[in-house]
Amino acid sequence: MDTEQIESEQHANFIKQFAADVKEGMSQTPKKMYSKYFYDERGDELFQSIMKMDEYYLTAAEYEILSMQKEQLVADMKLMDAPFQLIEFGAGDGYKTKVLLRFLLESELDFEYIPIDISTSVLVQLENSLQEELPDLKVRPIAKDYFSALEDLKSNNIRKVILFLGSNIGNFTKNNAPGFLTQLSDRMNPDDYLLMGVDLKKDPNVILAAYNDKNGITRAFNLNLLNRINQELGGDFDIFNFEHFPIYDPVSGATKSYLISKREQTVCISSLDLQIHFEAGEPIDMEISQKYSIKDLKDLASKSGFNVVKNYFDCKHLFTDTLWSIK
Ligand SMILES: C[S@@+](CC[C@H](N)C(=O)[O-])C[C@H]1O[C@@H](n2cnc3c(N)ncnc32)[C@H](O)[C@@H]1O
């Protein structure tokens, strides 16, 4: 098979899985979407706008940590001697990772960068920008879901540093996060590290504003998934019939985003031969963004086969990059 055939087969498999997940999610109570499908080309663009919003403090906080503490971080990971792979789950546009990549190159370390992302469009964008900005970097992008990428992880004995930045772990519920992280720790060796960006519990108003910006960018980001279903699966969602509704529960630390049906309506998805009935006021559960305390993180590490090596904070202690090794 040539590259074109492989890509078209991969795309067909992706659409098949997307369709199955939409069908399954729409049959649940409450109805549910899987947030990994937010990221088509328009979704990537909207997320990049979210990262630039004043309200979305997460990006600036993590950028500060990586910029100000990169020397210490790299020293703590003891990266100076052997070659290693820098594997990033859910890399996105690599805006913050580039700080680390540039520093690792300047330090003349021997490594390969392997960004993994479900969005092929963001990976192409990332690869092109890296070629221009860091031409000496060895890059091997992988367009896969986290779970299928996990299967490739233990295929060699090269040292690994795994990045999971930008609060991506927050998209797992507190119950599901240990299962995913245990699969990671099972595939890591004692001198490998995981560096994970985690959003911390804090003033609930600050958190909620990050998911409910005044310009409606997060709203558009959520509604875009309905547009994607229309385009790729033949749906007839009218996005004006749904409203974005985020909530933050300071006890559990979960931010949940819902789309609320403004009226009773029936939506058809032709490729699934599916009719979905919505009551007025009925929610679709779109996304979770789980926040953690430092104690929560210690418990999560322990449940998942990890030790916390060190936590790095921004100056306002809004966010942490937490460095873990296996037990
Ligand atoms: C919130 S963005 C963060 C991007 C980047 N880590 C950052 O900090 O800027 C999440 C990224 O993870 C990717 N992603 C989400 N769910 C995924 C999954 N199940 N498998 C692979 N990639 C996923 C999305 O396509 C998106 O690029």
Automatic annotation (TrEMBL):
E.C. numbers: 2.1.1.44
SUPFAM superfamilies noted in UniProt: S-adenosyl-L-methionine-dependent methyltransferases (SSF53335)
Listed GO biological process terms: methylation
Top-rank lineage group of the source organism: Bacteria
Alphabetized UniProt keyword annotations: Methyltransferase, Transferase
InterPro entries: EgtD (IPR035094), EgtD_Methyltrsf_superfamily (IPR051128), MeTrfase_dom (IPR019257), MeTrfase_EgtD-like (IPR017804), SAM-dependent_MTases_sf (IPR029063)
Residue ranges of domain Histidine-specific methyltransferase SAM-dependent in the record: 18-324
Pfam families: Methyltransf_33
Keyword Transcription: no
UniProt-recorded Gene Ontology molecular function terms: L-histidine N(alpha)-methyltransferase activity
NCBIfam families membership: egtD_ergothio
Protein name: L-histidine N(Alpha)-methyltransferase
